């Protein structure tokens, strides 16, 4: 059972998340040859003031 974890700052809509998990699941089915029902996708969200890149908080960008 493949599992995909996506780490992202909060702020995406439910529609965006639906599209992402659909596309990731389809890629797993295509490339790993597994049934869609066996693919788990988890989106782990962090507040923009709890995530940084290059030493700068996302909330400060």
UniProtKB/TrEMBL annotation:
<dbReference type="InterPro" id="IPR014347">
    <property type="entry name" value="Tautomerase/MIF_sf"/>
</dbReference>
<keyword id="KW-0413">Isomerase</keyword>
<protein>
    <submittedName>
        <fullName>4-oxalocrotonate tautomerase</fullName>
    </submittedName>
</protein>
<feature type="domain" description="4-oxalocrotonate tautomerase-like">
    <location>
        <begin position="6"/>
        <end position="61"/>
    </location>
</feature>
<dbReference type="Pfam" id="PF01361">
    <property type="entry name" value="Tautomerase"/>
</dbReference>
<dbReference type="InterPro" id="IPR004370">
    <property type="entry name" value="4-OT-like_dom"/>
</dbReference>
<dbReference type="GO" id="GO:0016853">
    <property type="term" value="F:isomerase activity"/>
</dbReference>
């Amino acid at each position: 059972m493949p599992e995909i974890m996506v780490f992202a700052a909060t702020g995406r809509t439910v529609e965006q998340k639906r599209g992402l998990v659909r596309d990731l699941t389809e890629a797993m089915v295509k490339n790993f040859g597994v049934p869609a029902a066996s693919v788990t996708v988890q989106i782990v969200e962090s507040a923009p003031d709890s995530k940084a890149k290059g030493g700068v908080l996302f909330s400060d960008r």
